[in-house]
Design brief:
By secondary structure, this protein is mainly α. The protein has 10 helices and no strands.
């Protein structure tokens, strides 16, 4: 190739050089405006930092000087963090949400009702079941503590008593004895002296047993429908047709005709 045939750069022409110059000027203006805005922001932060930093420093100093207030705030934040776990472990939420999920799977609907609806319904049913216990906690623990009649430790003990009574009432004796043996607790120990860790662990295990026992009886009528549909399709020679696709409408119809949700929720509430 002849060197005279080499491509011409855009900067070699007057038009290309002018366009490149305008681009540089535009970029320089943008950088200058950004730098100016940043400088104004820094000046404003510096102006207000002297007055704004006083409040956090005073708050931190007061917390360090008052250890009791610091411990109360730390305990409150810890309790707020553990609220979801306490809701699951110390109430009937575990049994309720498992049974509702088993009902959905027994019908054959994987995502209907959605998980949000199942959990919301389980929360409201749990609130219905736990309302008497919450009332006792409010009367015996929260009100005296809010009025300054008892300390935080006494509040925790008074709030735990109704929950312990509820959990022990719903716990199988075999599960309680099992965790007593693991925790090296004497078998003759009175129930009021059993540690909370033993009561909570045995209660959760018993709740799983309750939930799966109820779910077993709920599954039976739906299994019967599946067996009838599968036998009918096999007798008709339609072995390639999935039985679940045919049985699902019949299971939904049966569940609607017997008012299944009301029966399920009524069974759950009466099981406590």
């Amino acid at each position: 190739m002849n060197r005279h045939d080499a491509p011409t750069l855009i900067t070699d022409s007057p038009v290309g050089a002018a366009a490149l110059w305008r681009r540089w000027v535009k970029t320089a203006k943008i950088c200058l405006m950004s730098a100016l805005a940043f400088a104004v922001f820094v000046v404003l932060i510096a102006a207000f930092s002297g007055r704004a930093s006083a409040a956090p420093l005073d708050t931190l100093r007061s917390l360090l000087d008052n250890e009791q207030q610091s411990m109360q705030i730390l305990t409150l934040l810890t309790i707020i963090t553990l609220v979801p776990t306490l809701l699951i472990m110390l109430t009937g939420f575990t049994r309720i949400v498992i049974v509702l999920s088993i009902v959905r799977n027994a019908i054959g609907l994987q995502n209907m009702p959605p998980n949000t609806v199942i959990i919301g319904l389980a929360l409201f049913v749990t609130y219905f079941v736990m309302s008497p216990i919450l009332g006792q906690i409010n009367e015996n623990a929260y009100k005296p503590y809010s009025e300054g009649q008892i300390t935080l430790t006494e509040f925790a003990d008074e709030a735990m008593d109704p929950l312990r009574d509820f959990m022990l009432r719903e716990t199988y004796e075999a599960d309680l004895n099992f965790f007593k043996n693991i925790a090296k607790v004497d078998a003759d120990t009175p129930l009021e002296d059993v540690p909370d860790r033993v009561v909570i662990a045995s209660f959760v295990t018993s709740e799983l047993k309750h939930a799966f026992a109820i779910g077993f009886f709920i599954y039976i009528p739906f299994i019967v429908i599946d067996m009838i549909v599968a036998s009918t399709l096999m007798a008709m020679g339609m072995m390639m047709l999935p039985p679940a696709m045919i049985s699902m409408p019949f299971k939904i119809l049966l569940f609607v005709l017997v008012d299944g949700w009301k029966l399920t929720i009524g069974t759950l509430i009466s099981s406590f």
